[in-house]
TrEMBL record, chain A:
InterPro entries in the record: ABC_BtuC-like, ABC_TroCD
PANTHER family: ABC-TRANSPORTER METAL-BINDING PROTEIN, METAL ABC TRANSPORTER PERMEASE
GO cellular component: ATP-binding cassette (ABC) transporter complex
Keyword Repressor: no
Protein name, entry field: Metal ABC transporter permease
Protein family: Belongs to the ABC-3 integral membrane protein family.
Assigned keywords, A-Z: Membrane, Transmembrane, Transmembrane helix, Transport
Main subcellular location: membrane
TM region(s), chain numbering: 16-34, 39-60, 72-92, 104-123, 145-171, 183-200, 206-224, 231-252, 258-279
Compartments it resides in: Cell membrane; Membrane
GO biological process: response to zinc ion; transmembrane transport
Membrane topology: Multi-pass membrane protein
Native organism: Lujinxingia vulgaris
Pfam families, per database record: ABC-3 (PF00950)
From TrEMBL, chain B:
The species this protein was found in: Lujinxingia vulgaris
Keyword Transmembrane on entry: no
Record's keyword terms, sorted: ATP-binding, Nucleotide-binding, Transport
Name of protein: ATP-binding cassette domain-containing protein
UniProt superkingdom: Bacteria
Homology family: Belongs to the ABC transporter superfamily.
Annotated ranges, domain ABC transporter: 38-261
One GO molecular-function entry: ATP binding
PANTHER family attached to this UniProt entry: METAL TRANSPORT SYSTEM ATP-BINDING PROTEIN TM_0124-RELATED
Length: 298, 262
């Protein structure tokens, strides 16, 4: 495999780097997605982004768009549509009677149906539409790498600067509001970051690995009782490793890239959960400072 | 806040209630000479414009230990959340004469999401957030400062443990320590002893009383028919099932007779 990589290193460098960087950013944001029980947000955003990319292919094919405009159209539409969903979610958050899950259902089902409808209309790009849904190496371009690198750096920098504020807004939003923390703005920033990275990653990697790299590394890392900072670091590392190893697995086996990355992420998640179970059994319990149970019953 | 003031509850005491006599409440005339922190006029609390409780008229002087009690579902927590701006009032006025930073809310432990594996350190660090600017989003928690706060509630040994693995009583004391980090002038507590056994409840009420007396913190607390909480209070707001409200001032020697009010 190493000979193969040396031979084709230049060819596969950008897709591999893109997958690793996207995995890192998505894995980090995934901790919020999983712990806040908004996994369906990620699924809906992946599908919405996939619709944006498909519409871009359709428009490019039918309007004869070429060059920079054609290149920018797909990520721009993916980010635009997913941002609309995010703003819808934030808006609905203030109106509990409407229900976020209903909007998420719509944001998942309707784009999926539209992608299936649009696919046959752009027969020449049908393989690219499939690649957008399931993931493929051929989609990744240098511009995708730079866009995902920029977005991931933005996400990481934001988290470093306001990590504890984001955690506070997720962990205890009521008290955070009483202490002046702008919970709603932080939520909008968080959802915006998820929309941005999901949009770019769906264009470059596909909807399936984008969803997989968001959810699976976080599920694994949250199984370890290691404190918040380490959970984020482990999820980001696991996401990056899944992007890399999944790609190498696909190269070695000729499997689908997106499916391989998702399977590797699932395997790593399983290993982390198993490790968490073992470590938790060995870890000392918190010392009791309460009166004994029998006194309580008495 | 200083760890020099030893307010630590001693949970190893034998199960006699209370552990030690709580010092008497401040006399009425002393409290009434203190500045007014809160003035409430014609307040109606509720949701979506529908009144649940009120109209309410009351004030809160600095140094008061105010207890709010009543059966489940009458709107005690709604009242507290309305006072601190988490729920908009249906009608009426709420006038605070202290800055928002000087007020700290201690919620019930179940409001904290257990999915995030936050350590006690992580939870406590959130108490350092104050103010509204961008700079307020970035905090640098110092371990010694957090340990000092934990020391006050006797929980310093739990600093690196996961918050979700602690008992409900331990969690409640951690949340109290977090509130104290903000150096509050007013503490609002939503049933702090709801999930505690009698010994821990006694120690916690004693601790709160000590905080009120020694750190000059005004306390407004919801409790569920607790004679101990009543005994420590200088003012009691009772809400009955029909939403009727009665405010009673405790006499100076109320601790000798927890039911003695005028």
């Amino acid at each position: 495999m190493f000979e193969f990589l040396a031979l084709y290193g230049d060819l596969y460098r950008d897709p591999i780097l893109t997958a690793m960087i996207a995995g890192l950013g998505l894995g980090l944001l995934g901790v919020y997605v999983v712990s806040r029980r908004i996994v369906f947000v990620s699924a809906a955003l992946s599908q919405t982004s996939a619709l944006g990319v498909t519409i871009a292919f359709y428009l490019s094919a039918h309007l004869g768009l070429t060059g920079l405009l054609a290149e920018l159209l797909a990520p721009a539409l993916a980010i635009l549509l997913s941002t609309l969903v995010v703003f819808g979610l934030v808006w609905l958050g203030e109106r509990p009677t409407l229900g976020r899950d209903a909007l998420l259902g719509v944001a998942f089902i309707v784009p999926t149906a539209l992608v299936l409808l649009l696919g046959p209309l752009i027969a020449h790009e049908l393989h690219e539409v499939e690649a957008v849904l399931h993931g493929s190496a051929v989609l990744v371009r240098q511009s995708d790498l730079y866009a995902i690198l920029g977005a991931t750096l933005l996400v990481v920098a934001t988290q470093i600067v306001a990590f504890r504020a984001f955690v506070f807004a997720s962990l205890d939003p009521l008290v955070a509001r009483t202490q002046g923390v702008p919970v709603r703005r932080l939520d909008a920033a968080l959802f915006g970051a998820i929309a941005l990275l999901t949009g770019l990653s769906t264009r470059a990697l596909g909807a399936l690995p984008t969803f997989g790299l968001t959810v699976l590394p976080a599920i694994g890392a949250l199984g370890l009782n290691v404190g918040l900072k380490w959970v984020f670091i482990i999820a980001a590392t696991s996401g990056a490793a899944s992007g890399l190893l999944g790609y190498l697995l696909a190269l070695a086996t000729d499997w689908s890239v997106g499916a391989s990355q998702t399977l590797v992420a699932a395997l790593l998640a399983l290993l982390l959960r198993a490790l968490g179970l073992i470590l938790n059994r060995r870890a000392p319990r918190p010392p009791a400072s309460t009166p004994p149970e029998k006194a309580r019953r008495a | 806040m200083s760890a020099d003031i030893d307010l630590r509850p001693n949970f190893d005491q034998p199960a006699e209630l209370p552990h030690e006599p709580i010092p008497p409440c401040l006399p009425d005339d002393h409290i009434s000479r203190q500045p007014t922190l809160l003035q409430v006029q014609g307040l109606v609390c509720g949701y979506s414009g529908k009144g649940l409780l009120g109209p309410l008229d009351f004030h809160l002087h600095q140094g008061t230990f105010m207890l709010i009690e009543g059966p489940n579902g009458v709107g005690k927590s709604t009242l507290l959340k309305t006072l601190i701006g988490l729920i908009p009032p249906v009608s009426g006025r709420i006038d605070w004469s202290l800055p928002a930073d000087a007020l700290r809310f201690v919620p019930q432990t179940r409001t904290l999401d257990p999915m995030l594996p936050a350590t006690v350190f992580d939870v406590l660090a959130t108490g350092l957030h104050r103010g509204r600017g961008l700079s307020a989003l970035r905090i640098r928690p110092r371990r010694t400062e957090l340990l000092d706060a934990l020391e006050v509630v006797g929980m310093a040994h739990l600093c690196d443990h996961l918050f979700r693995e602690l008992s409900e009583g331990q969690k409640q004391l951690i949340l109290l320590a977090r509130a104290l980090l903000g150096k509050p002038r007013l503490l609002l507590l939503d049933e702090p002893s709801a999930s505690m056994d009698p010994e821990r409840e006694a120690a916690t009420i004693e601790l709160l009383h000590g905080i009120q007396q020694q750190l000059d913190v005004t306390v407004m607390m919801i409790a569920h028919g607790s004679a101990l909480a009543r005994s420590a209070s200088s003012r009691i707001m009772r809400i009955d099932r029909r939403g009727h409200i009665a405010i009673e001032e405790c006499l100076k020697d109320c601790l000798d007779d927890p039911h003695h009010t005028h």
